[in-house]
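LOG
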Amino acid sequence: MKSLLLLGVAVVVWNTTAWAQKVKVDYDKTADFAHYRRYAWGDNYLLTSQHPEDQNRIDMALRDSINRQLQLKGFVPDETSPDFRIKYEAGGMLDAQTGVKPDLLRTGTMGYETSLDVWTSVLGKMKITVTDVSSQRTVWQAVASKKIGDPKKFMRDLNKEIDTITAKTLKGFPAK
């Protein structure tokens, strides 16, 4: 009984940590981020299997959220004379995991029967790239990934979910 309880606790802990968002940041150590004040958008890329209207909602939520995060940091949108360009590449893919669990209440030929558990989720990824306008060099880049257990709930709370992701992804921008 203790073993089953420990296994149950381990599964709960594993599931809560498996759903956490991960962010990897890389930047040009020679870049001078202090002179960046104005930005413009580059060409974004969004790959999903959503309906076109939902894809547009996701695109707008990403753009609006990134704009808010940058403006909170003091950056100003300026399409005519930007210091840097920002763009995102984002999408999601179906992820499935399986496991076998014994049913100790029913007996079979081995003393118990097993059942197959299947967990599906969407693995969402987003890469944000900052390019210096004068040199055309990529000076900062972050890749975020997050397992989305309930895509319908994610879409219902789209703006809140996107804000959480972009805030964490842009936390390290500009590089110190």
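LOG (cont.) second protein
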Amino acid sequence: MLLNRYEQYFFNSNFREAASTPGWEAYRGELVLQEGEIADAQGRRKPPHALFKQATVLVNGDELKLISGSLEELQHFPSFMEKYGVDLNPGTVAVLFTVNIPKSFVSVINGATVAFVSLVEGLAWNELIDLVALEKGDFKGQSSADKVVTVFNAFKGHKYKYPEITVEEAMKTTNNAKREVHGAV
């Protein structure tokens, strides 16, 4: 299973579970993009330098079907590609909510259409299901993993309304936006 290879990068995991369809497995949590330095002689590491936050991953055996989450900076995308990019393929749904881009765009990478969606506040999961107009009732009675399968199925044939540009071009337009967090004062 592909998730076995990714497991070394799991961080603050919410769940990893098999879906009701044999061979399908889902993960939600965070994924390490840039590891922290080795802290001691036992090989333990300091906290990661960069994370792919609010990540949702769906695999079918060794095939990556869905990957979504939040990048604090588009500049972390090369680290994303280094660890997970080899698994992108034409059948992969990839939606990367990115804080420091002024406008959403799509780019074709390894045959996969990767959507970079500008998101300064909000939850990646909620925004992901909003993109394909799913509602709470669409998930009624489903396990956590089956909910991820439902989202993947909703993306089949989905056409993004964003312009297509390369990541290199988009890197020239990044801004200083930071994630907006609201909470108790």
